[in-house]
TrEMBL record:
Signal peptide: none annotated. Keywords: Acyltransferase, Cell shape, Cell wall biogenesis/degradation, Peptidoglycan synthesis, Transferase. It comes from the Bacteria. Pfam families: Big_10, YkuD. The active site is at 320 (proton donor/acceptor), 338 (nucleophile). The keyword Transferase applies. InterPro entries: Big_10, LD-transpeptidase, LD_TPept_cat_dom, Transpep_catalytic_dom. Transmembrane segments: none annotated. Pathway: Cell wall biogenesis; peptidoglycan biosynthesis. This is Ig-like domain-containing protein. The keyword Transmembrane helix does not apply. It comes from Actinomadura yumaensis. PROSITE patterns: LD_TPASE (PS52029), PROKAR_LIPOPROTEIN (PS51257).
Length: 391
């Protein structure tokens, strides 16, 4: 289509939407005009007007061959806002993010040439892929929750990610109080963010995943962005000695309480409480404890319901109430691997805990594995970083 006027304005489709401004003082019947300066100013928009099945990870580009650009706007039928950058000479504009798949976009460019206003428009649609990638879970994710200073950010996707680097580049973590951090892939569909040192307490962290239009490989494209705010609460650190049968809880450096406990009896590996840096993962009241790998009638089988359980590993370790062992709490280890507390201490710890609080235990010959629960702090920082697709 061509639209002509006093200044010879023409907009065409094809590979790019093109605007031509011919400088002149009078028009002619063919609409080309009489050239006073012999110059034409052309603005080209790519993708062009009417383009279909445009790849979402391709850029939008606007170029002025003569004159300058003043404003470029992009309006999409759904999803993320598209912004871009104008070159220093104001002759080129380029979008700075990917596009939403299966969407319609309208690009409008405005500028000036020889003191005259110029404008061009392109309307196109993006590819609707057969496979899509989306985030199905972000942890932490509880509304109004405050988490501890050791808290990781855990993402799980709806499918395996082929191009991990492309997806990781779309992830951004912005704390109020900056600290070095890195992503580590622990599977084809899961990636975890951990900091080099603990988060500073009492702050907010913004997590953004600009996934809409990202080519995740294997023909899959991201469908929508994710934007979450995570709140870090008080710095609650618990340190305990398994051989010493006590743990001390501190909040923001101030001692709150020292608690006697009875830990695992150590008769087998599974009955040995793990040493190392754990994170509190959640709480249950009541919680049913069942011996792993055993059924009723087997030696060592047990099934016990306890109150005020706070989990700190995936191998069945909790702090919890155990009235029957109060007499030896603080002096002997008789449990199946958990930290047995008195009912009052168990409830107190249950009430103050935050997911992501640090529990550092020493004194046993069984070290907690970095992938046992959220024990990611067991892995040296240098090794953690190597799990990034961008390392």
């Amino acid at each position: 289509m061509s639209v002509k006027g006093r200044f010879g304005l023409a907009v065409t489709g094809g590979a790019g939407a093109v605007l031509v401004l011919v400088s002149g003082c009078s028009g002619s019947d063919d609409g080309k005009g009489e050239l006073a300066s012999g110059r034409e100013s052309t603005v080209t928009i790519t993708p062009g007007n009417g383009a279909a099945s445009v790849k979402p990870d391709g850029p939008i580009e606007v170029r002025a061959s003569d004159g300058t650009l003043e404003n470029v706007t992009v309006q999409g039928s759904k999803g993320a806002t598209v912004t871009g950058r104008l070159s220093a000479d104001r002759k080129q504009w380029r979008s700075d993010r990917t596009l939403v798949p299966g969407a319609t976009y309208t690009v409008t460019a405005q500028g000036k040439s020889d003191g005259k206003q110029i404008s061009a428009t392109s309307r196109f649609t993006t590819l609707k892929p057969s496979k899509t990638l989306s985030v199905v879970d972000v942890t932490p994710n509880l509304k109004g929750e405050k988490v501890g200073v050791g808290m990781p950010i855990i993402l799980r996707f709806n499918r395996a990610v082929t191009d991990k680097a492309a997806v990781e580049r779309a992830l951004k973590v912005t704390p109020d109080k900056p600290v070095e951090g890195a992503w580590r892939w622990v599977g084809s569909d899961q990636v975890i963010y951990r900091t080099k040192t603990y988060w500073q307490p009492h702050q907010k962290i913004r997590f953004q995943a600009a996934l809409a239009g990202v080519n995740a490989g294997g023909g899959a494209y991201g469908t929508k962005d994710v934007d979450e705010t995570i709140t870090i609460g008080a710095k609650q650190i618990t340190t305990g000695s398994i051989s010493g049968h006590h743990m001390t809880v501190r909040r923001d450096g101030r001692k709150l309480r020292t608690i006697p406990f009875s830990a695992g009896n150590g008769q087998t590996r599974e009955f040995t409480t793990t040493s190392g840096v754990h994170l509190l993962m959640g709480k249950e009241n009541p919680v049913t404890m069942v011996s792993p790998g055993r059924k009723p009638g087997d030696p060592g089988y047990y099934k016990t319901v306890v109150n005020y359980g706070v989990r700190f590993s995936n191998s069945g370790e909790y702090t919890h109430s155990m009235p029957s062992t109060v007499g030896v709490q603080g002096s002997a280890n008789v449990s199946h691997g958990c930290l047995n507390l008195s009912p009052s201490n168990a409830k107190w710890y249950y009430d103050i805990m935050q997911r992501g609080d640090v529990l550092k235990l020493t004194g046993s010959d069984r070290e907690v594995e970095p992938d046992n629960g959220w024990s990611y702090w067991q892995m040296p920082w240098s090794k953690w970083k190597k799990g990034s697709a961008l390392s």
